[in-house]
Each structure stands twice: as structure tokens, then as C-alpha cells.
């Protein structure tokens, strides 16, 4: 979803009065996610060969008996609140807490370039619904769509991370298997979280919009944790998929 941030940010931000024909070269880039989606979902579904007894035992456990899932649920709730809060800031919420956060923690959200505002709105209207769906998938067994949507969400975020290293002259770690396909084909499925971190700290960002020195540790901790969470969730869904496999009884009911 980086293009969703880049194109509107160019139009509505402080650079909107300087649009040139080269700007429209970004438009064909929006076709990439569509092509990637067709390519991925035309692949045959992966068949898991787990004994029915194992699947039933795993799906019989409630959330309290699955500690890693419980931690993920708590983290997803926190991430949802974080997205909602920063989305309200992007919408110019007059609450005192929002004002203090932008003043003391992330003044970059008020940058007139508008990229951070568009990004927070993308989180609000894209990531928050995904987190709600993911919460449902972690609580209710047999949600076979969970690994796919989790990979799409995590893949775009990892791609943005890889692009950040490429711009710095560093080679990103190569990813393997199905996750690699999603990472490099779904480049536009998530906003550039790590680019947001870099822009908030970059020397070329106006001083008044840079993260204050005393707030850098908390800022990095919050934003890196927010970027890592989708990767952990994808790891859990792909390498321990028993909870998300539909049983034959569920298929008959459908």
C-alpha cells in the first residue's frame, strides 16, 4: 500500500502545487498488486496432511491453553488501539492526549508533506479491519483463510523493510518458500512502516517534525514492535496451521 500513501501524499501535501507529468508514472505501479493477487490465488491450495485426531486436539484447546496465541491476541488488541489513536491524530482530533503525543513523541505526524497522515489513515482503514479479522481467526478454530490474509498483510510490510535496506545499500535477507512470493509480489499491500521510522528520524526532515531525542527509544520500540507483529503472526499461522484447518465435519456443514 506504499503507492496508496505516495500518490495521495503528493497531491494533498505541500508538494501538491508542483505536480509534473512524471508524477503520473507512478500510476501503472498500482497494477502490480492486482497482478500479484491473481498470481498468488491461482496457485492450488496447500493440503495439510495432519491426522484428524491431532487437529481435533489442537482445536479443542481454548485460548488460555494456547499461550502464544494469547500473547498474539493481546498484541493485536494493542496494535488496534495504536492504529485507532494515530488515525485520530491524522484526523486532527483536538483531544489533549493527541496533542501531547504529537508534541512529545511523533511530531512527524503533523508534517505538511501529508505522507504520515495518509499512512495513518491507511492503517486506520486497512490494518484495523485486518486485526479484527485476525482476532476472530485466533479465537475460532477452522478459519482456513487465516494463513493467506496473514501472509498478504505481513508480506507487504516485510517488502517495505527490504526496500528500506536496499535504499541504504544493504542486501535484505532472502526469504524462502511461499512467504517469499507474497513478500515480493504484494509490494503495495501494506504501508511503509519502516520508511515512516526512517523519515521521522532523518536529518532532512524539518527539525520541528523530527522525533525528540528523549523520545527516540520509546518511538523505536513502539514502531518496530508494530512492524514485527505481522511477521510473528504469519510465522504462527504457517508453521503451526493445525488450528486453522477445517475438519471434515465443518466442510459437511458448509
Automatic annotation (TrEMBL):
- PROSITE patterns per the UniProt record, alphabetical: EXPERA
Topology with respect to the bilayer: Multi-pass membrane protein
Please name the InterPro entries in this protein's record.
Answer: EXPERA, TM_Tm6sf1/2
- Provide a GO CC annotation, any one: membrane
List where the protein spans the membrane. Answer: 70-91, 120-139, 217-238
Q: Which UniProt keywords apply?
A: Membrane, Transmembrane, Transmembrane helix
Q: Which residues form a coiled coil?
A: none
Domain EXPERA, residue spans: 68-234
Which compartments does it reside in?
A: Membrane
Question: Mind telling me which Pfam families this protein's record contains?
Answer: TM_Tm6sf2
Q: What's this protein's name?
A: Transmembrane 6 superfamily member 1
| Species of the source | Sus scrofa
